[in-house]
Amino acid sequence: MIRKLFRNARITTPSDPGSPLSGKRQGEVHVFENGALLCKDGFIEGIGNEREVLSSRAADDVALEVDCHGLCMIPGFVDPHTHMCFAKRREEEFSLRLQGTDYLEILRRGGGILSSVRSVRRSSEEELFSVTRDHALSALRFGTTTLEIKSGYGLETEAELKMLRVIDRVGGETPLDIVPTFLGAHAVPEEYAAIPDDYVELLIRKMIPAISEQGIARFCDVFCERNAFSVQQSRRILMAARENGLGLKIHADEIYDLGGAGLAAELQVVSAEHLLAANEQNLRAMAKQGVMAVLLPGTAYSLRKPYAPARKMAELNVPLALATDCNPGSCYTESMPFIFGLAVLNMNLSVNEALVAATLNAAYSIQMAKTVGSLDVGKSADFLLLDGESPAVLAYHAGVSPVVEVYKRGERVA
Ligand code: NIG
Ligand code: FE
User: Fold this and answer.
1) In a mutational test of the pocket of ligand 1, which residue from 104, 106, 223, 250 has the highest number of ligand atoms less than 8 Å from its CB?
2) Cα distances (Å, whole numbers) of residue 154 to 120, 159, 167, 245
3) CATH of the domain at 326
4) pTM of the model
């Protein structure tokens, strides 16, 4: 048994009430100006003002004491939406977008997601592993200690399973907790371009059961969008996933308002992501069903689109989470500090609202809140030390990472 004490920290953390925080409570955090965290075997045993933590009996039996020098301590970031398992970057496509070619137009011409599908199908498991691990370790240096990664660049059973095995292996061979999501419904593969409904059938009859049988994904996601999957197709796919025991997620109303947010509410999925174009009625329905909105401001930034209406969502009581979307097309970043800055400065979330969104609510959006997402007794000692007085530094010190130390299960990992 190893007990460690981290003292002399300015701690800011949400405290987990047992459900996501939303509306007026979205920014509810505790601040301990002279704080300490006590952990035993990697799990939090005490948290609060230093004097109180030190007065507990357990504090007498500490093997290691770390002085945090008054730095700001927050929970490790949870990044609940990434596509960082890919084989090749798409820089030439970025240049095309800068010259004015539309993102969905590139996909329609067989580029975009489909070009990543070609390179992932061609690449060996080892190559794919090395790129994905490097992305995950880069995310870790920016303070992400728990990470969701989607498949979706295979679009055939074997290639999707290859991606999911790689994602699983990254979880085993890095300090991060990794949550795998099956996104076989990311695009219609070229060989099914003329018969898209046959691909939906394949997903439902073959791919989803195969993935579920291997127990290799926790969630199933669908890209519900023009040139991808309609609301009707998405409904069928998600219902099949539910029958096969997978949790549900949906890329909803990212570019066009197809009604994906309404489907999210109807199926009471765990989270609906993007929502740049979602309408108010469907957002209300999401709030009513307690569906989390996972916001990806890096994507609006990179596609030069208007941001998701985060203030409106908070007003409607939709719980908000933040994620990078890290992918080779619509937003290439592993940096949660960058996303944090965009959320505060361009979506008008308060610093504390963004903090809850990037930690506790993000953990709820991938059903990981039992162990991570806040500095509460019993949870994993996953935390960051920031070079600043408060988490505001994440938005204030723009374009750099104020994350100076990263701890996972009480161990320094970056
Ligand atoms: O979330 N929207 C669909 N999927 C990703 C982009 C994937 C890609 O362009 O490779 C997204 O934006
Ligand atoms: Fe995405």
Assistant:
1) 223
2) 6, 4, 13, 22
3) 3.20.20.140
4) 0.98
